[in-house]
Amino acid sequence: MLVSTLMTASRRPRSVPNDQELRLWKVGRALTVTFVAAILGAGCVFYSLVVLLDFQEIDSTAKLDAKTLFDLVKLSFGVVAGAGALVALVVAYRRQRVDEAGAHREATRLHTERFSQAVDKLGSESPAVRLGGVHALAGLADDAPDHSLRQTCIDVLCAYLQLPFTPDPGNDPAHQEEHHRYLAFRNVRHTILRLIGDHYRRPQGTHRSWQGCDLDLTGVTIDCNTDFSRAVFSGGTVSFDDVVFSGGAMSFDGAVFSGGKVSFRRTTFSGGKVSFRRAVFSGGTVSLVDATFSGGTVSFDHTTFLSGKVFLDGATFLSGRVSFGCAVFSGGTVSFGAAEFSGGTVSFRRAEFSGGRVVFGGALFSGGTVAFGLAAFSRGAVSFRGATFSGDEVSFTSVRFFGGDVSFGEATGPAPSGLLAAVITASVPVVLPSAWLPVNP
């Protein structure tokens, strides 16, 4: 059953932009067309030389002498000889293409044989054999003759992670064997995640690099320390939708999200530590829509949001700590629309909102602590329109407004602490709800 599921994943239809199929004419047809074209070309040259060469110097009664005619014939035969060389070139080109296609077919055949053996290993009842199958598939992806075959290997590894697994029966003596078996199979899953991180760190275009390939981890449970630090997600589609990060540490430190689409929709960050420190979001689209951050620590400290779009609409920040300390929002769009900050601590201390557009429209700030202390708003547009502040601690102490467009219009609830003092000292207008404006005695 396991093998059947994985083979189904490998048969997903994919377009092959650079296929190796031969689309050449048959040899006889190609040679005939080439030779006829050469004869016609030679005839045209001969006609041009006879009729047009020194035409003005030959009157209607003049005749070409034998020497001139002989030179023209030699030149025509030279053209025919050149045509013969062209025919030989066509034959050599076709032979090379046929040889290349044959080599590709042979490489594909060998790849398919090894692929079937590796998938069979993934269905083994032995954890050690499955682990061997994982490494075999990763090696096949590295050596694949084309992008499509590499993508197929990656798809199978992702499909294995998506399969349901038996939960840990516990470490009591009555279930000792089942517990050890669970740990062994969990190690297989963790190995796949480690190999994925390793391959996405390698520069694109080099051997063993998977950058630019699709990565589908939808619905996977990640319950271990996983390292995607310095990984580059450039092009392709990467999905962490509905993934549950529970326990352990998940690192995207220094990762680059550039081009393509990366999705964390409905992802749950529960317990443990998830870090995007010094990550760069540049181009493409990154979606954390409806993600849930509960317990543990999530860090976006020193992260840079450049061009592209990052969506955290509908995200829920519950207990634990989420930090955007010293993050730079410069260019592109970052949206926290309708996000809920409830419980725990969310910090934007020393964050820099410079250029681009940052939206907190409709966000709900209730419970816990949200701090924008020492943040700087300069250029670009930042909107809290329609946000709800329900009386819990939201601090704008020592916030600096240097320019751009900052609006709290239609926000409800008491004004965040420190906001009015920051607005009074600001050199640019900041739109506030009328209920927040100070009343002159």
TrEMBL record:
UniProt entry keywords in alphabetical sequence: Membrane, Transmembrane, Transmembrane helix
UniProt keyword Transmembrane helix, yes or no: yes
Entry's transmembrane regions: 30-52, 72-93, 358-377, 419-439
Name of the protein in its database record: Pentapeptide repeat-containing protein
Organism: Streptomyces changanensis
InterPro entries according to UniProt: 5peptide_repeat, Autotransporter_pectin_lyase_C
